Each structure stands twice: as structure tokens, then as C-alpha cells.
Amino acid sequence: MNEQLRVGLVGAGPWAQQVHAPGIADHPGTRLVSVWARRRDAAAEITDRFGGDIVADPDELLSTVDAVAFAVPPAVQAELATKAAKAGKHLILEKPIASTVDDAERLVDAVTEAKVASLVMLTRRFAPETRELLAEVDRLGGWAGGNATWLTGALLGGQYAGSQWRHDQGALDDIGPHAFDLLDAALGEITEVLAAHRSEPDLWHLMLAHRGGATSTATLTLRLPIRPTVTEYSLYGEHGRRTLAGWASTTQDCYTTLLDEFVALVQSGTTEHPCDVRRGLHLQRILAAARAKAEGVA
Questions:
Q1: Cα dihedral sign for 71, 73, 77, 80?
Q2: pTM of the entire predicted model
Q3: How far is C-alpha 73 from the chain's CA centre?
Q4: Cα(204)–Cα(172) distance, rounded to whole angstroms?
Q5: pLDDT < 70 stretches in the chain
Q6: For residue 16, which of 70, 71, 109, 153 is within the disulfide window of CB 3.0 to 4.6 Å?
Q7: How far is CA 136 from CA 85, 151, 266, in A?
Q8: What does the alpha-carbon distance between residue 210 and residue 188 come to, in Å, rounded to a whole number?
Q9: What is the pLDDT of residue 2?
């Protein structure tokens, strides 16, 4: 590469410190140049370890970078990412991309108008074992249904237990996008939330309809005392059953692949990707439909 992509990081929590900052700093195609967080001491922890300068506000960050990586709550991300896109900055986004469908649509409009690259950190989509499974599923066809299970006590203790937005929005918004994304990628576009029920402790059961006739279910929670976390995806149909369980690839490995593809998008001037901001909007609409169904308004 002739020149590294200058990346600014917005946010300095555990995810930023463990995934975004080291990933950007270590990747040959990117350089961490600026960090902004509401707590200057948290930003300093990142710059001390991984380089870059602390900036006073998001506007100063935008003046120093080619791209921005976000590790902040959805509502904050949507506002700042829309501004960044309008300034011509490429985006690495967390899921969900916003807190409302309207905000997600505004972000997509800004990205589309500015013709910038965008990727959403749908972690498992960047794992080789996931891609191998999806390629096999697509090649064989004939899948009638599937299910996703994600059971964890992440909000009962540990590094993310202090995340207020996760406590407020729960499993649906935090891990729901990952589950819906993989079911959608494997079985076809999710066209309807057929049923959704939330019980304590924030335990979600959902039934989904897919284009082409397949159906799937998802069971999600962040508040059951289950260690280690249980994650399993299964598909079944004419060719039997296929499963994806546990985590063969690390989150850091997945993020490195994301950065590989992000840099390639920017260098080539490409703005479309299976996990770009438009994918984020599709998942945002599923979240909204699920919540409405559970509340009896859909």
C-alpha cells in the first residue's frame, strides 16, 4: 500500500479498547490518528497504548481523518456518523446503526449521497467458517428453516455490565442484529416478524418469515447466568442439517478481515458491500418490527 488510511475512533469503552483501537493500529492499511470520547481519561488510555492524538470534539476529529470508526451507543453513532458521512468520511459502524428507523434512514441517505464506503461490524459475517457455511448453503439450496440461539449473562457481570444502552435496549438490539443477519443471509431476506415475545429476564422468542418460504426462530437473552455463552445457528432442509456453534475465529481476527475489506473498498472507490450501511438499515427495520410485535402494535 502506498498510503495508510487515516482513521479516527469515536468512543473509548471496552469494545473500543479491545477491538477497534488495536485492530486499526496493527493493520498495515490503517493508522489510528485521532480519538474522541466524552471521558478524556478513557481516550488517553487508548492513545497511550495505540497511538493517535486526543481531540477536543468530533469536529476536530473529522478534520484529521479519512475514515471514522464508531464504538458508541446507537443514538450517538447515528448522529455523528451522519455528520461524518456528509463531511466525506468513510464509516466503520457498530450494530444497530441507530436507535430508530428514521435515524437509520437518514444515515443511509447521507452515506449514499456522499458516496463513501461503510461497513457494519456484524462480527461473525467476517469469520471464514461462517463464509464457508453460507457458501455451502447457497450452493445446495432447498433450506426450509433454521434457528438461532444466543444465551448469555453478559449484563449480569463483566466488562459490558455497565453499558447503559445495553441495559435499556436489551438483547433484541444488542445481539438481535447478529442473529437476524445470519438467518437472513442463510435463508433469504427476512420479510416479516411473525411472532415476538419478551419475558423476564429479557428473554426473547421470535419467529421470522423469509422470502422464498423458509421460516426461522431466534431465542436471545443477555440476562441468564449461563457460562460460557451459548451461541448456535442451525439450518435444515432437503440436505439435512447444518450448524454453526461457538466461536472458531476470534473477534480480533474478524475485525482484521473487516479492515482488509474496508481498505479495499476505499481504495477501489466501491461503496456497496453485503455488510454496508444498507444492511444496517434492513436489520434496524427488523428490530422495530420485532419490538412492535412484542408490544402488540403490529
A1: negative
A2: 0.96
A3: 12
A4: 7
A5: 1-2, 298
A6: 71
A7: 36, 26, 29
A8: 6
A9: 58
- CB of 197 closer than 8 Å to CB of 153: no
Q: What's at 291, amino acid-wise? A: R
Determine the Cα–Cα distance for residues 116 and 91; give it in Å rounded to an integer: 8
Please check whether residue 201 is in contact with residue 190, taking contact to mean a CB–CB distance below 8 angstroms: no
What residues are paired with 244 via a beta bridge?
233
Is the Cβ–Cβ distance between 284 and 104 less than 8 Å? yes
The whole-angstrom distance between residue 152's C-alpha and the CA centroid of its chain comes to 18
- Concatenating the DSSP letter of every residue in the chain gives --SPEEEEEE--SHHIIIIIHHHHHH-TTEEEEEEE-SSHHHHHHHHHHH--EE-SSHHHHHTT-SEEEE-S-HHHHHHHHHHHHHTT-EEEEPSSS-SSHHHHHHHHHHHHHHT--EEE--GGGGSHHHHHHHHHHHHH--EEEEEEEEE--TTTSSTTTT-HHHHHHHHHHHTHHHHHHHHHHHH--EEEEEEEEEETTTEEEEEEEETTS-EEEEEEES-S--SSPEEEEEEEETTEEEEEES-SS-HHHHHHHHHHHHHHHHHHT----TTSHHHHHHHHHHHHHHHHHHTT--
The pLDDT value recorded for residue 162 is 87
